[in-house]
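Field guide to reading this record: the first block holds the primary sequence, the second block holds the structure written as discrete tokens, and the final block holds curator observations. Each block starts with its own label. This record concerns CCHC-type domain-containing protein, catalogued under organism Lupinus luteus.

BLOCK 1 — SEQUENCE
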Amino acid sequence: MGLPILTSKNWDRWLTQMKVMFRYQEVIEIVQDGLLPLDQSEAQKKDNKALFLIHQCVDDVHFEKIQRVMTAKETWDILVTSHAGGDKIKKVKLQSLRKQYELLHMEEGDKVGEYFTKILTITNQMKGYGEAITNTMVIEKIMRSLLPRFDFIVVVIEESKDVTLMKIKEPQSSLEAHELRLVERNLMKKAELALKAIHKDEDRRKDKKWKGKQSINRRKTSQEWSESFDKRGRSKLNHNQKKFDRSKVECFNCHKLGHYSYECGNGKSKESRHKEEPLTTQEDSDSEPLNLMVTVAATKSHSESWYLDSGCSNHMTNHKEWLKDFDSTNKSRVKFADDSSLSAEGAGSVVIMRENGSKAIVSNVLYVPKMKYNLLSIGQLIEK
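BLOCK 2 — STRUCTURE
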């Protein structure tokens, strides 16, 4: 192990190390008090030993200051004076350290161990200039300058232990243990947030199943809906999408393959089919197209209009008087995209008038009293 070497930047540390070395070599009295009058021969040996240690522990710049000095005490005093200065300089430095000590507070991002090191470094420097600081003073300073998240730990320490009898390492260990728990909880919260974000992304991908359609937050105009559907109410296929194999389609009228019921020439009469079919794509080829996006007068409120919505999974209305065959036992909760929900107090069927005067029945319409709009679910219509 090498000897400590004095430079222009490590005076405080070198001073502490040299005092320990002098005590170990039993020459501390010679360095501080000089040669003793009794037993001059033994004292001279200790003085020479101390002077040798000082010469070995300084750099070239400091050695030039002491190379002509013949006693250990005089050599030591020169080094102390050149670094610590006189009494006035000591007072100025001590005042500066006191100011730093009083203004020092734990900052966001500081760890408990790092903050204890800052406090102890300043207090040791103050002790080097003659300031009397006890462990109790240091502990009280630390506990009143911690971050607010450690307040209840400080209260527990003050109530359960006598601060005047505590050592500095005792509150430090308690605070560091609490700090570790906070770090673990923050990691768990981050993991939960990441998992929640993954689930939300999956839900968004599921919601994009019906492309080109929009929720109630941005409704399409009648022109846009007419472009999305043909005159039979069927969704237009993308040019890149494969055409459906019509050879396997069975007609509901003649039960033959290769065509739909509305294309069948042997089907029922137009009038009878209008009475029986629900609100789906099964319309007579000669009937007028069903316009589901109802146009109302400016004086009519939103609560009396019907809106097509690709985002909702069920038909919904706030008009109980419109519902036929109302079933009050069919109760449920309707959940929206913002995680809010409303109560559905039952379900029934609604009769809608076509432009040609015929009627269409929309079944399984939920009664939601607090709904502001009447919604027709595109997904539910397509399923039928």
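BLOCK 3 — OBSERVATIONS
The radius of gyration is 45 Å.
The first helix runs from residue 11 to 24.
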